[in-house]
Amino acid sequence: MHPGNGRNDIPHRLKRHFFSLNMTPPSTKSIENIYGRILDVLFNPKKYSSEITNMKSYLVDATISIWDAVKKRLLPTPQKFHYIFTIRELARVFNGICKVAEKPDYKVIKDCLQIKQKIRPELFLIALWRHECDRTFVDKLITLQDKKIFSDLLDKVTKEKFRDSLGLDDDQLMTDFLFCDFMREDEKDEYGDVVAAAPFVYEACPSIEYIKKVCNAKLEGYNQKNPSKQMNLVIFDDALKHLLRICRIINTPGGHVLLVGVGGSGKQSLTKLGCFITDKILFNISLTKSYGQTQLFDDIKELYKLAGPAGKSVAFLMTDADIKYESFLEAINSMLSTGEIPGLMAKDDREVIPLECKPVYIKEVAGGSKSVDPSTLELWTFFINRVKDELHMVLAFSPVGTKFRERAQKFPSLFSQCAIDWFLPWPQEALESVSNKFIMAKEFNMDTKTEIRQELCKHMGKVHEMVIAVSGDYFQRMRRYVYMTPKSYLSFLDLYKKVYRQKYDGIDVLEKNIIKGLDKLMEAA
After folding, report:
1. Where are the alpha helices (DSSP H) in 308-400?
2. Cα–Cα distance between 338 and 341 in angstroms, integer?
3. How confident is the model at residue 114 (pLDDT cuts 50, 70, 90)?
4. Could you tell me which residues are beta bridge partners of residue 317?
5. CA pair distance 181, 205, nearest whole angstrom
6. pLDDT for 509-519, tens place per residue?
7. Is residue 290 domain-shared with residue 240, that is, in the same domain?
8. In this structure, which of 103, 126, 388, 485 has its CB flanked by the most CB atoms within 10 Å?
9. CB 80 within 8 A of CB 47
10. What domain range is 228 assigned to?
11. Which residues pair with 395 in a beta bridge?
């Protein structure tokens, strides 16, 4: 690979000891042929009308154009070292389109399901394409300015590639929808028991208010099912979008996600809710003093057995606090890149696991034919591919400090194989929603009017933003960081409630003392 994007070339004195292969990226024509053939299969003329099938060439051309524009405009820097846009980004865009197109029985594209006002299928496809570009490119950007740059590029490419060729207006082209796959409801009998679980259908959301109600209902279901681990989450707009991204990734075969944000952003809570929504088995490391690589390998081995022979979908959540040794990440890096970890399976396991997978292999691959006798190597390959599809890594890291950048250099698969979702600071709307949840709660009694409590919620959000601004000024003057995270804001709200209750109760004590003193004076008189 040619050096660039901040990489240094290997010295010739070292290269002369190796056999070098120059891996050049494929040409534009080759990329068009690859993804053009994929869309040819998906948009079958027997299933879709000519309006939809004619969109294939436009979608491929537009995707390559936006990918090319982003590579030239959003370049990597020491702070934005992960701004490297490879062919994987193209694959992720088309993978999102395939999630809708590969299920024609639901007629998601043809009938534009879930949308209040039905639109032309071409506009629906353009909205789907814009959404997948956002999820692929925007989610990994770390500043609002960079997100604005991409938004402008996306609008420009959309107009250039679709306006004249399809004869559409600019207002129609800028149609945007949110997509998710958990809006269908379970089939229940007259007694309320679930007869058939709802299918996961990737489709457009009618509105952000509608999907927010669905997510709040799912949160209530989670709290009822886990009374000892209830989550007091506030699903504001920003948190809702992060939740949809997490669900979208871990509900995709082979989907892994890297959540990057400061403490208290909601990475772990949203992952727990996302796993509940998508019916994933969530696994966390239980750290102890004696926990080491042997114990990690034992845990991963159990997850392999769950995802392989058992065929269950598992999400492995790992945070910064779980990384007791950097060798942990070396194992995860190997698992993400190849699906296997050197030294994980003993010789006995490599002989037993293929035998456990044989009935599943005959059922799924051989179509139930008992005459098929697969070899051990075929069964092992089937087992690894099954693990790749069903075992999902969710890495929750903080960008603060130098470790984050160092891990990107040492373990590249953590960034290349995972879809990155960068948690930006909470916006004003989020701060007000969270403070409203705490201050306006029925459990917290305030001796004041409702209007004053509402203004207090807005004021608390503004105070947090003021402190962030002052922290920036402090860094400019003293060159020292003071991090104001969402966890700091939650602590601020808890402290306010605690101090208010102490002061309010203190007034009652003073009142009683004064009344008691007056009574004594009356007796003395």
Report:
1. 327-338, 347-364, 376-390
2. 8
3. low
4. 284, 394
5. 9
6. 898 899 999 99
7. yes
8. 126
9. no
10. 207-344+391-422
11. 258, 318
